[in-house]
């Protein structure tokens, strides 16, 4: 067994691991990064990038399909070439992965170890039984993996997770997507728009990351106009039959329906990769999912020299969070024991459905928990159905709800489904991080006619409900038509 000593060990070379490596190196420490799988990161290989490439193809098909609404007609059939769609996806995905591989290659070979790491004790890691590394500080940046009920394995190769979808050479005819969460909504809607017959089944009524019941209800109804979606489905049978899967379920009218699909896609959530690390060997505090508890500002666990970052921390499994957490963990492991609090930004998440869904700052459920029943926060809203620019572009579907604190007028957060929600959410997140009040946000410039004018309407409504501003004047003409 090869034995060696090092200042910092990072387990995992994903987005968090790579950021941690740079952070620790900045302190001049000896650092080793261990990787059990292929290099290239989840985001580039099987996450953010290939999913957005699939969505881009679906958007393009959808633009063509709605052109007649403007009086623009395509005389002839819109044909989707599944092989070409998947070919572009894989080519572009490989390009993105290539950029990451170049970055990994720039790390000296002696700093990289290939193999699966496991704790032997609080300072020693064993890698695939071939080497042991003793480290002063350790960063767990092992990411997450899809989680689904184990009995679904009986479906064999007809059961897929997101990784498998991005390996297709062609599009299938039909799929059942289980889990209308972020991954399920993005993949399911994109496949539907690319001509795949899609059924989507959820549990308990949850849709995407939303917590505001009004936005969740709006989003459900909007998506149901496009494909079968039951966020609280009753599936009574699911069995593999030949090259497909047969499913019986209660439809929304209460009757039993029978379908046969080519594949079942499990998008029922992800599980942090911390269960096979030998954490039981350590006196480390774990939460009820077995994830090490960690300070959100330092990423330090209850074992002072052990840090956790990225999806493994289960704090907010998003790319920019993985990068931030990795950087913080890396700096702190590098300067251990003299650690520092790092920057944690306002919460921001976007689902690339159409209309997009987004969350900013504190969500509705979080605010209800934080403020209880003291009526200390209130809500303003705007519907995009009559919003000027959205109607111009035939994209007038959506609901934005903004939250503010009574008394101070502080902007607390927002949940939305709407056109260009990715951009609206960024504006709101910047305001949130600047700790702006609703009045200060209303002092900012708004052009005309733009979708952002919807934000102004929602903020005016909120200001009125906070008793800090006048009522909204109907069809406020000084703001431009369709504010
Ligand atoms: C389909 C999909 C779409 C997504 N889209 C978006 C999006 O649009 N925007 C967004 O912000 N986020 C998105 N995400 C989330 C984002 O991809 C993740 O939050 C991010 O990639 C997590 O990075 P990470 O470094 O924590 O994990 P990873 O990149 O997964 O890295 C972890 C690494 O650790 C290695 N590892 C695990 N265990 C061990 C071990 N014992 N020893 C050694 N190595 C080990 C793994 O092989 C892996 O390489 C998406 C995710 C998915 C699945
Ligand atoms: N655009 C983005 O930023 C983006 C895109 C994809 C993924 N992600 C990240 O990846 C994480 C994981 O995404 P995800 O969609 O796998 O998880 P999720 O937690 O968002 O959604 C899982 C969904 O599955 C449902 N579910 C659970 N068990 C079920 C069952 N047996 N049958 C039917 N439904 C069931 C849940 O109710 C929930 O709606 C997200 O939280 C997000 O942080 C981000």
TrEMBL record:
Cell membrane listed as a keyword: no
Residues covered by the FAD/NAD(P)-binding domain: 7-326
Tree of life domain: Bacteria
Pfam families, alphabetized: Pyr_redox_2, Pyr_redox_dim
Cofactor field: FAD
Keyword annotations: FAD, Flavoprotein
Boundaries of every Pyridine nucleotide-disulphide oxidoreductase dimerisation domain copy: 349-458
Family (UniProt): Belongs to the class-I pyridine nucleotide-disulfide oxidoreductase family.
PANTHER family: MERCURIC REDUCTASE (PTHR43014), PYRIDINE NUCLEOTIDE-DISULFIDE OXIDOREDUCTASE RCLA-RELATED (PTHR43014:SF4)
Protein name: Dihydrolipoyl dehydrogenase
Origin species: Zobellella aerophila
């Amino acid at each position: 067994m090869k034995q060696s000593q090092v200042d910092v060990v990072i387990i995992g070379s994903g987005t968090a691991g790579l950021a941690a490596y740079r952070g620790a190196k900045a302190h001049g420490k000896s650092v080793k990064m261990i990787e059990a799988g292929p290099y290239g990161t989840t985001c580039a290989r099987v996450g953010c990038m290939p999913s957005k490439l699939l969505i881009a193809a679906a958007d393009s098909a959808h633009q063509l399909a709605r052109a007649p609404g403007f009086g623009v007609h395509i005389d002839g059939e819109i044909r989707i070439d599944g092989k070409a769609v998947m070919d572009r996806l894989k080519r572009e995905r490989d390009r993105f992965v290539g950029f990451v591989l170049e970055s990994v290659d720039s790390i000296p070979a002696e700093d990289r170890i290939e193999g699966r790491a496991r704790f032997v004790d609080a300072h020693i890691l064993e890698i695939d039984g071939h080497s042991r590394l003793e480290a002063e500080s350790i960063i767990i940046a092992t990411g997450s993996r899809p989680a689904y009920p184990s009995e679904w394995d009986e479906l064999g190769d007809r059961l897929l997770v997101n990784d498998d979808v991005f390996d297709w050479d062609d599009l299938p005819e039909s799929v059942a997507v289980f889990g209308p969460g972020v991954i399920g909504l993005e993949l399911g809607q994109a496949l539907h728009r690319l001509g795949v017959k899609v059924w989507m089944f959820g549990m308990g009524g949850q849709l995407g990351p939303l917590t505001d019941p009004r936005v969740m209800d709006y989003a459900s109804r909007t998506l149901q106009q496009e494909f079968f979606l039951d966020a609280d489905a009753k599936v009574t049978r699911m069995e593999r039959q030949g090259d497909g899967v047969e499913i019986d379920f209660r439809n929304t009218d209460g009757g039993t329906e029978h379908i046969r699909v080519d594949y079942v896609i499990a998008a029922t959530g992800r599980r942090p990769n911390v269960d096979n690390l030998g954490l039981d060997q350590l006196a480390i505090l774990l939460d009820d999912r077995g994830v090490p508890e960690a300070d959100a500002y330092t990423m330090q666990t209850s074992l002072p020299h052990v840090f956790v970052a990225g999806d493994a921390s289960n704090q907010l499994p998003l790319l920019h969070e993985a990068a931030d957490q990795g950087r913080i963990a890396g700096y702190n492991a590098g300067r251990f024991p003299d650690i520092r609090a790092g920057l944690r930004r306002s919460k921001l998440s976007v689902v690339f459905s159409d209309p997009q869904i987004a969350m900013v700052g504190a969500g509705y459920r979080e605010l209800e928990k934080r403020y209880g029943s003291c009526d200390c926060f209130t809500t303003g809203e705007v519907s995009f159905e009559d919003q000027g620019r959205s109607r111009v572009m035939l994209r007038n579907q959506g609901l934005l709800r903004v939250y503010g604190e009574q008394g101070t007028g502080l902007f607390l957060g927002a949940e939305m489904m709407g056109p260009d929600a990715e951009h609206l959410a960024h504006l709101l997140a910047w305001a949130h991080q600047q700790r702006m009040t609703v009045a200060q946000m209303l002092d900012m410039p708004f052009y005309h006619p733009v979708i952002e004018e919807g934000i102004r309407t929602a903020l005016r409504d909120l200001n009125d409900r906070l008793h800090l501003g006048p009522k909204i004047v109907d069809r406020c003409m000084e703001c431009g038509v369709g504010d």
